[in-house]
Amino acid sequence: MSFSITILGSGAALPTGRRNPTSQYIFCNNRHILIDCGEGTQMQLRKYGIPFQRISHIFISHLHGDHFFGLPGLLSTMNLLGRNRGVTIYGPAQLKDILKQLFECGGQKLMFKLNFIPTSTDGEQILFEDRLIKITSFPLKHRIPTTGFRIQEKQKEYRLNPDAIEKDHVPIEFFHRLKKGESPTNEQGKILNFTKYTFPPKPSLSYSYCSDTAYFEDLIPFIEKSTLLYHEATFLEKESDRAKLTFHSTAKEAAIIAKKADVNHLVLGHLSSRYNEQDSHLSEAQIEFEKTTIAEDGLKIDLLKIN
Amino acid sequence: MSFSITILGSGAALPTGRRNPTSQYIFCNNRHILIDCGEGTQMQLRKYGIPFQRISHIFISHLHGDHFFGLPGLLSTMNLLGRNRGVTIYGPAQLKDILKQLFECGGQKLMFKLNFIPTSTDGEQILFEDRLIKITSFPLKHRIPTTGFRIQEKQKEYRLNPDAIEKDHVPIEFFHRLKKGESPTNEQGKILNFTKYTFPPKPSLSYSYCSDTAYFEDLIPFIEKSTLLYHEATFLEKESDRAKLTFHSTAKEAAIIAKKADVNHLVLGHLSSRYNEQDSHLSEAQIEFEKTTIAEDGLKIDLLKIN
Predict the structure, then answer these.
(1) Alpha helices in B126-206 (DSSP H)
(2) Interface mutation target, options B44, B69, B212, B245, chain A, most CBs of A under 10 Å
(3) How confident is the model at residue B307, as a pLDDT?
(4) How far is it between the farthest Cα atoms of chain B?
(5) What's chain A's average pLDDT?
(6) DSSP annotation of A60
(7) CB–CB of B101 and A98 under 8 A?
(8) In chain A, where are the structural domains located?
(9) How far apart are CA B89 and CA B74, in angstroms?
(10) What ipTM score was computed for the predicted complex, to two decimals?
(11) Do B269 and B5 form a contact (C-beta atoms < 8 A)?
(12) Chain A: residue whose CA lies nearest to B63
């Protein structure tokens, strides 16, 4: 089991030498996921040694350029490198036509299947689900339709208690059902209660991603108790007028959301290029929520370690 | 008078850590010009300290992503930084709609005027002209419609010969016409022959840009006697089959074009990511054309120095 995020771009609309536009790589239970894809994402993936041909799911939060202008180039590069495994893109419906037009005008035929799942800002939507994880979207409050995403591990298996199993000579064929939390009956008609033979599952981790958004308490139910919350903090409180005007958040507001949603850890990103340092963001946020980190390009956070 | 080019991206379709996709900045007689704008161009402009708000003319050779995927981001950044001076883009007609759609979907209104001049592959076209320079396009041979560009200084003024002028007491009011190569008549009815009072003009410099193209002798008339020729050299001769298939050139072919066009200096770029070194390109080219340089990101060439 693995669950980590790598920040590929921690900046806002104006890239700087230090902060690229928004993109994050998520490695979760052997799934390789990209969230947002600002200009230069393919170079960042290469820089940080991420095997980007393994990425098969790309989530785009909204159609501001700093969140998707790197997508055509990334798909083009995947194609040129001989990809044949499909890619699924989740994002606003218009994105499908944009990509189509961009590849058509260049006469470029993708040699892999490009699936497109349109997102909606109508409440919570399940975008992806398998045996181990579930990915949902939920509405944010921005100038154009924007969604956040949550990647949630499903409940894990109960862990066998070897001592109890050995003592009662529980046969191996019942292990599978016990791990699922079921209580099978053995050949002698005795119920094998799973609570006797197992320990509780390891906790299920989850990562929530909120970019870009004004302060928006309505999103709290969708991100509650996340192991890690990424929330944009484009501004500081002293620029709160500017934050309101542009539908962005301050570091303090992001931290209040983290506190109210009772998350475990907070990482702040999308910092405006006007700030040359990040200590002010950190101290402003930590008044409200202690366990805060400021995103930097290349930062990797292992959710297993912060849980 | 100044005339220099800066290579912002010297790579081909697949960017590497060392070579960004194609883009070049030209500073010519106080005009700030960009040719092609691959992904990451705005970051490269920043990296090399180029004042990109001064760029008012952007030329796009064709609609393969590695030549224009950085354009939406650059325009967006210009806008966010408060630009109000217009930008003129010269490129394939479809590019206008692409940009329109990209900005509309993000709800982004450009606060400066975006002029668009469609290019054509129908022979030579004059795209821009002022008192000092002329910029033309000409067709290349690629998989989709593609043009090269030539930036040409117009004939410069004749330079006054101070000794001859002093000797004959030529009044100052005739200097202007003499410098233009005219022979005015003075108050005594005497013709002041400009050849007597001036030296020939300094040579007019020109830069020709050919990317991407197969070996194509038809382009020679359009680039003849350029001070500097940029020609793509995606491949080496040992990959000539691949070059033909993809409508690209080898280093040798580019050098033959330079020789036949009688240019002064050649710079080769658009090197495929398969090559880790560039010495093979250089030696292959120099068999045909000695004065060859291999482009690298950040390379600046002053045309006054190589003339």
Answers:
(1) 162-167, 175-179, 194-197
(2) B69
(3) 78
(4) 73
(5) 96
(6) -
(7) yes
(8) 3-156+202-306, 159-198
(9) 12
(10) 0.92
(11) no
(12) A106
Q: Which two tokens stand for residue B29?
A: 């007689």
Smallest Cα–Cα separation from B146: which of B185, B120, B125? B120
Query: B107, A16: Cβ pair inside 8 Å?
Result: no
On chain A, the residues whose CB falls within 8 A of the CB of B69 are 39, 69, 72-73, 76, 102
Lookup: tokens for B303:
């045309």
B139-188: per-residue pLDDT in tens?
999 999 999 999 999 999 999 999 999 999 999 999 999 999 999 999 89
Angle formed by the axes of helices A279-286 and A251-260, to 10°?
40
Judge whether residue B29 has pLDDT over 80: yes
Mean pLDDT of A239-261: 98
Residue B257 in contact with residue B217, Cβ under 8 Å?
yes
Chain B residues in contact with A242 (beta carbon < 8 A): none
Lookup: tokens for B103: 């900005």
- Residue A108: pLDDT above 90? no
What's the gap in Å between the CA of A99 and the closest CA on chain B? 10
The residue type found at A242 is: R
Spell out the residues 6+ positions from residue A23 whose beta carbon is closer than 8 angstroms to its own.
A8, A9, A34, A35, A36, A37, A38, A41, A44, A70
Q: Which two tokens stand for residue A278?
A: 């990040």
- Give the pLDDT confidence score for residue A286 in this predicted structure: 98
Looking at the annotation, which residues of B are catalytic? Answer: 66
Task: Assign domain B3-156+202-306 to its CATH architecture.
Answer: 4-Layer Sandwich (3.60)
Q: What per-residue string of b and e applies to A78-91 under the rule 16 or more CB within 10 Å gives b? A: bbbeebeeebebbb
10 Å Cβ neighbour count for B276? 7
Residues of B with CB under 8 A from a CB of A: 13-17, 20-21, 39-40, 42-43, 46-47, 63-66, 69-70, 72-73, 76-77, 80-81, 92, 94-95, 97-98, 101-102, 105-108, 143-144
Sign of CA dihedral B299, B76, A14, A60: negative
Of A17, A18, A148, A9, the closest CA to residue A71 belongs to: A9
Distances (CA, A) of A157 to A4, A123, A163, A303, B62: 20, 30, 18, 18, 55
Structure tokens at B183: 């022979």
Contact B260, B220 (CB under 8 A): yes
> Which candidate, A102, A25, A93, places its Cα nearest to that of A62?
A93
- Residue A139 near residue A125 (C-beta atoms within 8 A): no
| Inter-chain contacts counted by CB atoms under 8 A, chains A and B | 104
